[in-house]
Specification:
Number of helices: 5
Structural class: mainly alpha
Number of strands: 0
Low-confidence stretches: none
Organism: Kitasatospora paranensis
Helix content: 55-70%
Largest sheet: none
Distance between the termini: 72 Å
Mean pLDDT: 83
Protein name: Integral membrane protein
Radius of gyration: 32 Å
Keywords: Membrane, Transmembrane, Transmembrane helix
Order of helices and strands: HHHHH
Strand content: under 5%
Length: 150
Amino acid sequence: MYAPVPAPPRRRRAAQAGTVLLRIVLTVVPLVSLGMLGWITMLKPAIVHRRTRDWLLFGASAAASVGGIVLIGTSTGDTDWRATTGVVLLLGTAVVVPAYFLAVDLRPPRAPEPAPPARPPVGMPRPDRIGQVRAGLDELSAYLEQQERP
């Protein structure tokens, strides 16, 4: 009742602004480059989360970017299937990568999992267990005393 009132936490506007600016830049890069630099955007979730899925998607986006450029570069004309496939790969990367990045980056953090119940230390049994052991030993000693008396 008479304790000091805690001060409200200070807001970090500079850190929030930097995060938002980075998010905007990483979302715009694949769109402006028509998918050729989509791998740059996928690098952030892979480094931050360190999940196998994010690293595989980073590799897939890099392969799609390089593959699209190679297919367009080796095509012989506008109607060649390689040019069409390369453009589809690059435009698909330009659309899918920012969508996935924003979905992963804007996801609220997971709540920490509850800790498992505390186990008693190895050398100190629980108090209720001690009572059970005592009762068992008392019963055993009473039984043995009856067996010794003929």
